[in-house]
Amino acid sequence: MISLIQRVSQASVSVEGEVIGEIGAGLLVLLCAEHGDTEAQADKLLGKLLKLRIFNDEAGKMNRSVQDLDGQGTAGGLLIVSQFTLAADTSGGTRPSFTQAAPPAEGRRLYHAFVAKARAAHPQVATGQFAAHMAVALVNDGPVTIPLRVSPPQP
Question: Is the pTM of the predicted complex or chain greater than 0.70?
């Protein structure tokens, strides 16, 4: 699975002009399932992003995770948005190929499994809409943008 994590002071996602998900301070998570991905990769990715220490402590060092955003036990939000274009392959020319993205039914299943596990593990989770044309608005805080990838085990 591939994700792009952005530390935000606020973010929202809209479909057809209607806001369907929004958060204040936290993480915008752009998420893509690839061929061969399983729920085990989703679990590993979720565990990593929940513990990723990219929020500042009182000394200004990136020492806090989204689970302890303010150092007082207050968690930040997660806005999880499906984005198959993270699997783009541009090595063959100027038009990206998306053949490495999971087929839509499998991508949907893994996206919804990831969201369900995120909701079980974290108090504030908002989402986009799988396979919809979405408008994502964000204020990237820092800016801090980090790619995370969890590959399937090799045989």
Answer: yes
